[in-house]
Amino acid sequence: MSGRPDDTLVKIVGYTSSTIKADKVSKSIGYGFAFLARVIELYANKSTRHSQGLSAVAGQIAYARYVTRFTGVFECLEALKNGSWVGTDDNDHLKCVVTLQVYSMLLYYPLEHASFVGFV
Predict the structure, then answer these.
(1) What local confidence, expressed as pLDDT, does residue 73 receive?
(2) One Pfam annotation, family name (predicted)?
């Protein structure tokens, strides 16, 4: 990243400005914390205060991701309407695959929330 803090902030905001990209960032952070907690437990041969804390943070990040997924349905509908998930130079086969992905996500988001309600 560049040296100026403003440039860094612009890049971060630009990357996390869509639901899918923001979900990828929070998923990576959450999985990273969970992985680090497990490494600490393996190294110490027991659960430690730090590993428990990192696991708790990872769990809270996982719950927070449910909130951002509420907007995912609207992003999928927008993608179907405008074709925003495919490029203008993509071939017809790729456009078909991406359209199938959009439909699968339209099914996935509601089912995920239903499973969350059953989990809680």
Answers:
(1) 83
(2) PEX11
The domain spans of the chain are 1-69, 71-120
Q: Average pLDDT over the chain, rounded to whole?
A: 84
Q: How far apart are CA 11 and CA 111, in angstroms?
A: 33
Query: Residue 15 corresponds to which tokens in the numbers above?
Result: 């990357």
**pLDDT per residue over 38-96, tens digit each?**
999 999 999 999 999 999 999 999 888 877 777 778 888 888 888 877 877 778 888 88
Q: Confirm if 1 and 21 have CB atoms less than 8 A apart.
A: no
Check residue 81 and give its pLDDT: 87
**Three-class SS of the chain:** CCCCHHHHHHHHHHHCCCHHHHHHHHHHHHHHHHHHHHHHHHHHCCCCHHHHHHHHHHHHHHHHHHHHHCCHHHHHHHHHHHCCCCCCCCCHHHHHHHHHHHHHHHHHHHHHHHHHHHHC
